[in-house]
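Morning, I've got a small favour to ask if you have a moment. I've dropped the whole record in just underneath, so have a look.
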Amino acid sequence: MHLRPALLAAALLFTSVTAYAVEPVRSVPELDMGRYAGQWHEIAHLPVSFQKKCVGDITATYALRADGRISVHNACRTGDGGRIAAEGVARPVEGEAGQLQVRFVPDWLAWVPLVWADYWVIALDPDYQWAVVGDPDRKYLWVLSRSPQMDAALFASLKAKAEAMGYDLSPLKVMAPVD
């Protein structure tokens, strides 16, 4: 009869785990880098150390390169009114259209696997007017728009998509007007 409490505990544990099951993080099945290239405005992001000095006007600009990679230029306004920028490069993940890897270290360190970070487009407007970018570990998340502001209903729907994939958005930093 000692087995009965153990089975009950296991059943309760299984029920609680499955009640909170979330979708896996998935990248979009198609990504046309020619259409994705250009300037994006950051609407919101999960806090990351490399953006701690940014207080607004955050942009990411992507440009196709002849070698099949993508140039990345990130810039933002700092608290003192100045601007800072970072130059990087992204490379497509073979066989995964919506997945890239990005690095912001010099070319001579590109051979080190740890310098490349996952950059997955996990939601994308059919007209390439907004995008949500994350990673499979749910540490990074950015909501991007072609314009420097976003409609509140659209923003709420994109947050709901991210939450359905298991992202904790309680620390989300909104960096641009949402109205």
User: Anything to note?
Assistant: The mean pLDDT is 89.
